[in-house]
């Protein structure tokens, strides 16, 4: 069997019906990628692409974000032992439970910060933090800026 060069293969590909299909526009590509990677990683993954117990745990976390979420509570809700839950959760998300919960809370806070009528301290408690200093520390470590500065930047750009 003779080998075709890459150039001749490319020419064949252009003449095929599949290659004749229009390419998606830059706008369509941009719209498909509007969500940041971080937001996508926090989205609850569809059934079947991760263990059902982890999907159940994620739904529970998102529904109870403003509550105190302990490892025991979430593992019990998922129907797993704490050690098995930790291992599966880390494999599925790449994060510890605490890291995941903090990221979810910060994402929720980022939306709330855009509401000018709310104080940062109110937002911190609404998304589940027990202290303002803990919230500020987590927010800054995840976003790279303080909640107050983020709010000023967003309103200055509006």
UniProtKB/TrEMBL annotation:
<dbReference type="InterPro" id="IPR018062">
    <property type="entry name" value="HTH_AraC-typ_CS"/>
</dbReference>
<feature type="domain" description="HTH araC/xylS-type">
    <location>
        <begin position="55"/>
        <end position="153"/>
    </location>
</feature>
<dbReference type="InterPro" id="IPR018060">
    <property type="entry name" value="HTH_AraC"/>
</dbReference>
<dbReference type="InterPro" id="IPR050204">
    <property type="entry name" value="AraC_XylS_family_regulators"/>
</dbReference>
<keyword id="KW-0805">Transcription regulation</keyword>
<keyword id="KW-0238">DNA-binding</keyword>
<feature type="region of interest" description="Disordered">
    <location>
        <begin position="1"/>
        <end position="27"/>
    </location>
</feature>
<dbReference type="InterPro" id="IPR009057">
    <property type="entry name" value="Homeodomain-like_sf"/>
</dbReference>
<keyword id="KW-0804">Transcription</keyword>
<dbReference type="Pfam" id="PF12833">
    <property type="entry name" value="HTH_18"/>
</dbReference>
<protein>
    <submittedName>
        <fullName>AraC family transcriptional regulator</fullName>
    </submittedName>
</protein>
């Amino acid at each position: 069997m003779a080998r075709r060069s890459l150039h001749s293969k490319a020419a064949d590909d252009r003449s095929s019906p599949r290659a004749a299909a229009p390419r998606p526009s830059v706008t369509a590509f941009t719209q498909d990628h509007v969500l940041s990677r971080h937001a996508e990683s926090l989205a609850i993954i569809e059934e079947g692409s991760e263990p059902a117990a982890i999907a159940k745990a994620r739904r529970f976390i998102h529904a109870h974000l403003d509550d105190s979420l302990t490892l025991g509570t979430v593992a019990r809700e998922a129907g797993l032992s704490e050690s098995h839950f930790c291992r599966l959760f880390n494999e599925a998300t790449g994060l510890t439970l605490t890291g995941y919960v903090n990221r979810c809370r910060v994402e929720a806070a980022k939306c709330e910060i855009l509401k000018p009528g709310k104080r940062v301290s109110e937002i911190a408690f609404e998304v589940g933090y027990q202290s303002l200093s803990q919230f500020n520390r987590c927010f800054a470590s995840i976003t790279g800026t303080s909640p107050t500065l983020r709010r000023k930047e967003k309103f200055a750009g509006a």
